Amino acid sequence: MTDAIRLATRGSDLALRQAGEVKTELEDHRHDVELVEVETTGDRVDDALIQDLGKTGAFVRSLDRKVLDGDVDAAVHSMKDVPTDVPDDLVVAAVPRRGNPADALVTPNGTSLENLPAGSVVGTASLRRGAQVQAHRPDLEVEPIRGNVDTRVEKLLAPALQDEHERRTEAEKERMSEDARQQERGDYEASETVEEGVENLDNESDDDSESDRDNRQNAEFDQTVEEWFESLSVLQQSALEREVDTEFDAVVLAQVGLERTGLTHHVHDEELPTNTHVPAPGQGALAITARKDSDVADALRDALDHVRSRVETTTERVILEEVGGGCIAPIGVYALVQGDTVRADVQVFSRDGTDQVGETRELDVENYAAEAREFAADLRDRGATDLIEEAKRE
């Protein structure tokens, strides 16, 4: 290939970072790459939750349409967003090495899921994550939260930062008023007699005690409001200005999203174990789509495809397709290649997490796709599909 590969991507920070990683790897293989930002249905309905859009592929189909129409050569997706019914003329040309598949609990103060107080409000945009949280901690409240990774974290941090800003502002006003009062007293005391000065010395200990109390009360505010604001990270500054309707004590999102956006350095996060919080099918992986049988598809596969990641995500997507879930369903599927087997963990929940169908099974790596279908059929017979359909109707 001699022409630059036109690579479609969403315009969010996470999507651009992911596409940037793909671009860099392709350039390392001596391909010229041009990134093309495309707005998707999911981007245009920012106030809606994914499950409320009524269909899968809200972040995918607009990009793939550009590929099919020839406007771009390929598209970069989060694998978990890609529907299992890929158009006939399209192919997942490459699955790069998978990132961290786990979920993460993010809190303002580092509290773990086990130690969140009863009644704490946990935000999530996923039916699966909400059901898993309630299955593990039925005493917690789960509320929907929408937005990109940084938006959700900002919504979590906003109330505490706004409260602190208000307290600092009030304390600064009080200090300025006290300074003005002391100046007035100083002017007056300068004209006092020596006798009155002696009397003031007698009362000095009382004045000092009041001053000490004031100093202790304001010790945490050793910066001006402006200095404090400048000391905040860009994320915290944005959170300070964000309006929120619901105060969250924690949010659950993909660990890889935090890592790829660099937010792990700015938040308190707990990686949730994949055996109790089974990830969404394909979570942590990327999917690069292109036109079937094209030179671009071949080039992408040769440069980017990671065999183990493809086997694991294909196993997960086969189970998802056979059970009938779709990317918005309350289902977790996680496959891991272990020698000559593929270990597959599956959890299917009711919306509130009270009912569950789940199992772990080892599949032969030489026949993983067929055995994954058999596994899914067994889960379907045990009521997994019924749980999914019920959750979608609610």
UniProtKB/TrEMBL annotation:
<dbReference type="InterPro" id="IPR022417">
    <property type="entry name" value="Porphobilin_deaminase_N"/>
</dbReference>
<feature type="region of interest" description="Disordered">
    <location>
        <begin position="157"/>
        <end position="217"/>
    </location>
</feature>
<feature type="domain" description="Porphobilinogen deaminase C-terminal">
    <location>
        <begin position="313"/>
        <end position="363"/>
    </location>
</feature>
<dbReference type="InterPro" id="IPR000860">
    <property type="entry name" value="HemC"/>
</dbReference>
<feature type="domain" description="Porphobilinogen deaminase N-terminal">
    <location>
        <begin position="245"/>
        <end position="295"/>
    </location>
</feature>
<dbReference type="Pfam" id="PF01379">
    <property type="entry name" value="Porphobil_deam"/>
</dbReference>
<protein>
    <recommendedName>
        <fullName>Hydroxymethylbilane synthase</fullName>
        <ecNumber>2.5.1.61</ecNumber>
    </recommendedName>
</protein>
<keyword id="KW-0808">Transferase</keyword>
<dbReference type="GO" id="GO:0005737">
    <property type="term" value="C:cytoplasm"/>
</dbReference>
<dbReference type="GO" id="GO:0004418">
    <property type="term" value="F:hydroxymethylbilane synthase activity"/>
</dbReference>
<feature type="compositionally biased region" description="Basic and acidic residues">
    <location>
        <begin position="162"/>
        <end position="188"/>
    </location>
</feature>
<dbReference type="GO" id="GO:0006783">
    <property type="term" value="P:heme biosynthetic process"/>
</dbReference>
<dbReference type="InterPro" id="IPR022418">
    <property type="entry name" value="Porphobilinogen_deaminase_C"/>
</dbReference>
<dbReference type="InterPro" id="IPR022419">
    <property type="entry name" value="Porphobilin_deaminase_cofac_BS"/>
</dbReference>
<keyword id="KW-0627">Porphyrin biosynthesis</keyword>
<feature type="compositionally biased region" description="Acidic residues">
    <location>
        <begin position="189"/>
        <end position="211"/>
    </location>
</feature>
<feature type="domain" description="Porphobilinogen deaminase N-terminal">
    <location>
        <begin position="5"/>
        <end position="157"/>
    </location>
</feature>
<dbReference type="Pfam" id="PF03900">
    <property type="entry name" value="Porphobil_deamC"/>
</dbReference>
<dbReference type="InterPro" id="IPR036803">
    <property type="entry name" value="Porphobilinogen_deaminase_C_sf"/>
</dbReference>
<comment type="similarity">
    <text>Belongs to the HMBS family.</text>
</comment>
